[in-house]
User: Which sequence fits this backbone?
């Protein structure tokens, strides 16, 4: 049986982990064991927060649409309900962009909803 030395592979693996922890603070960037734990935690948070990001943006759009609606005299929930009844299919992201950047177009949508 031939002897297999695995130092090269282990070194590569450790070096890769330490390269990924560049910018971390204290021993988490230079000590392999701490770096590995920090990376696992970081990846967990990254995965979770990709989902949270979607929630946060939807909340933000709802707040922006709500503010624009109140300015024109209709609460957010009634506005969304009327949109669905009139079968106007514009998502919240686009509505919030219209409310911010093109208020005249948003006003026309509001008038259509109020009819």
Assistant:
């Amino acid at each position: 049986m031939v002897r297999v030395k695995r130092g090269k592979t282990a070194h590569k693996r450790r070096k890769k982990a330490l390269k990924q922890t560049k910018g971390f603070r204290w021993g988490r960037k230079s000590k392999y064991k701490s770096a590995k734990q920090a990376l696992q935690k970081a990846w967990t948070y990254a995965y979770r927060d990709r989902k949270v990001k979607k929630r946060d943006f939807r909340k933000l759009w709802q707040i922006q649409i709500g503010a624009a609606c109140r300015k024109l005299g209709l609460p957010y929930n009634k506005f969304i309900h009327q949109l669905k009844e009139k079968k106007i299919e514009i998502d919240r992201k686009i509505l919030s962009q219209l409310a911010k950047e093109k208020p005249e177009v948003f006003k026309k949508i509001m008038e259509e909803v109020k009819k």
In short: The helical segments are 7-20, 32-71, 76-85, 92-101, 103-114.
